[in-house]
Amino acid sequence: MLESRSGTPSRTPSRSRGERILRKHDVQDAPKRELHDAALRVLAEHPEEIATALLEERGISPVDVSE
User: Are 28 and 19 in contact (CB under 8 A)?
Assistant: First the structure.
């Protein structure tokens, strides 16, 4: 795990893991625009995880954000 600015562990997946997955499928040098679009789709599909990660990054104990 990576360490965040607040000193708490970060759950951010390593870039190299994503790169290995892309290379396995013969995708190399993906344009930044394509990577950003994919990241935004994932963000939109997992808002609770994003909120939890943000709270953890700030050192706040996350509460159940699902309603």
Answer: no
**CA–CA separation, 8 vs 50, rounded Å?**
16
Q: Structure tokens of 58?
A: 């700030």
pLDDT tens for each residue of 30-60: 899 999 999 999 999 999 999 999 999 999 9
Q: Name the 3-class secondary structure at 60.
A: coil
Q: Do 65 and 52 touch, CB atoms closer than 8 A?
A: yes
Tell me the C-alpha distance between 34 and 67, whole Å.
32
Q: Which amino acid is at 31?
A: P
